[in-house]
From TrEMBL:
The keyword 4Fe-4S does not apply. The keyword Metal-binding applies. Residues 163-359 form the ENPP1-3/EXOG-like endonuclease/phosphodiesterase domain. It comes from Coptotermes formosanus. This is DNA/RNA non-specific endonuclease domain-containing protein. Belongs to the DNA/RNA non-specific endonuclease family. It holds the Pfam family Endonuclease_NS. Keywords: Endonuclease, Hydrolase, Metal-binding, Nuclease. GO terms for molecular function: metal ion binding; nucleic acid binding; RNA endonuclease activity; single-stranded DNA endodeoxyribonuclease activity. CDD domains: NUC.
Length: 462
């Protein structure tokens, strides 16, 4: 709002003539005069008092966190909403997710009665900036109960009665008992409440609560951990233990699965080898890329890193598998675990073989517990028909490894001093090679498939 001041009117015409203002300036009389008793201030989206630490509180004063808001509304019902939400969270010991935003551009009638959008800045070329919002809204969501409400406030203290596009939904404030406000006081900011889905039908920018809160929790074991292929406990010496913590030996794994059925499989295999006095060959790997639905319900592959050009790295595996083979009896089995604790009904490409877990009596797990990792067992040949990177056990059990520098036992194909780079160059995509590292008694199995290298670990439990 621009105000032009005319000085010394009395000296100019003896005070007899009423001044005439140039068109385009705001007139402090008539229709505009009733707007003079209020002002627009910085309305904070995230209020300072919602935070604890000084750096957080200072961050709320950046302009990215404010929108033009009438002071009567800011200090009136909007302040009451912010206070009520904090009080409700404290009283009920809840961690609430709160989203705040604006919708629409406020309009006031000009001198001709034409509704005109309000901006804090208009240059000589009529380029506009910093619009005054028509509505402020605050969405409050409880992840535990998955209950939410949206509170909407009208940023117009001069409105005679809310109507038209000031009202986005049916008012459900009668269902909210913990709000302390003067709801129908237009000067303090007329407010109403919306059902979340009703509100989102108009304001599509509101995030999907259930998506984020279903897959993200700050204080639980629903997070991605480093899932080790070759387990530390499979080895004896410190150097071997430390080697298992290199990133070449890990892949993203949900902690509920990592500390659940997957840990049970690892422990059971070691216990079985010890009880039967067996030297077992164990191969561990992953298969597929986990997908979750995006906000539009489209299944999307998960990666831990995506750059600005949409280049992706570190995929989250869909399945983990562990092949256990006894060279003496030439008997083997493959354990498969689903790396998705949110899956309601495992089907499709989550199931890659007929389950034969009923034939494995020494494994104590909860295979149908989805949170702990829905798991099943495969006959080796059945598994290999899908996961073709699994090596032939008969070769590996005879230690017929490809040679790497410092290896003293070499049985196949390559000369004693062939380097790793030279070995890689000998193979076309879809070939595979197994490399033994005698320092840690582990082998890394590389599979070249569609120009991508899949890695899993080989270890011998003795």
């Amino acid at each position: 709002m621009r105000v032009r001041t005319v000085k010394n009117l009395g000296e100019r015409d003896g005070g007899k003539t009423e001044p005439r203002f140039e068109p385009g300036t705001s007139q402090m009389r008539g229709v505009a005069m009733k707007f003079a008793d209020d002002f627009i201030m910085r309305g904070h989206y995230s209020p300072k008092t919602d935070f604890v630490y000084g750096n957080q509180q200072r961050a709320t004063f950046h302009y990215v966190n404010v929108g033009p808001q009438w002071q009567t509304f800011n200090a009136g019902n909007w302040d009451s909403v912010e206070t009520s939400v904090r009080t409700y969270a404290d009283k009920n010991k809840l961690d609430l997710d709160v989203y705040t935003g604006t919708y629409g551009i406020l309009t006031f009638p000009d001198v001709n009665g034409v509704e005109t959008e309000l901006y804090l800045y208009v240059d000589k070329n009529n380029n506009k900036a910093i619009p005054v919002p028509k509505l402020f809204w605050k969405a409050v969501y409880d992840p535990n109960s998955q209950a939410g409400i949206v509170i909407v406030g009208i940023n117009n203290p001069y409105l005679s009665g809310p109507q038209g596009d000031y009202v986005l939904c049916n008012d459900v404030c009668s269902n909210i008992s913990w709000l302390r406000w003067d709801q129908k006081n237009i000067t303090k900011g007329y407010l109403y409440c919306c059902d979340v889905n009703d509100f989102r039908a108009t304001v599509s920018t509101l995030p999907e609560f259930t998506l984020g809160d279903q897959y993200i929790a700050e204080t639980s074991d629903y997070y991605l951990a480093r899932g080790h292929n070759a387990a530390k406990a499979d080895f004896v010496y410190g150097s071997q233990h430390r080697a298992t913590f290199h990133f070449v030996n890990v892949a993203p794994q949900w902690q509920t699965f990592n500390g659940g059925n997957w840990e049970t499989v690892e422990s059971s295999v070691r216990a079985y080898a010890d009880k039967k006095k067996l030297d077992l060959d164990v191969y561990t790997g992953t298969y597929g890329i986990l997908t979750f639905p995006d906000v539009n319900g489209v299944e999307t592959e998960l990666y831990l890193y995506v750059d600005n050009n949409n280049n992706k790295a570190i995929p989250v595996p869909k399945l983990y598998w562990k092949a256990v083979y006894d060279p003496k009896s030439q008997a083997g089995v493959v354990f498969v675990g689903i790396n998705n604790p949110y899956l309601s009904n495992p089907q499709g490409d989550y199931l890659i073989c007929n389950d034969v877990s009923s034939e494995i009596s020494w494994l104590e797990w909860e295979p149908k517990d989805i949170k702990r990792g829905y798991s099943y067992c495969c006959i080796v040949d059945d598994f290999r028909s899908t996961v073709k990177t699994l090596p032939q056990f008969t070769e590996c059990s005879k230690c017929q490894y490809f040679c790497v520098e410092h290896t003293t036992e070499c049985f196949l194909l390559l000369q004693q001093n062939t380097s790793l780079e030279q070995t890689l160059q000998r193979y076309e995509p879809a070939d595979s090679a197994l490399f033994l590292n005698p320092r840690v008694e582990m082998a890394i199995y590389f599979s070249f498939f569609r120009q991508q290298i899949q890695i899993f670990e080989y270890s011998r439990i003795q």
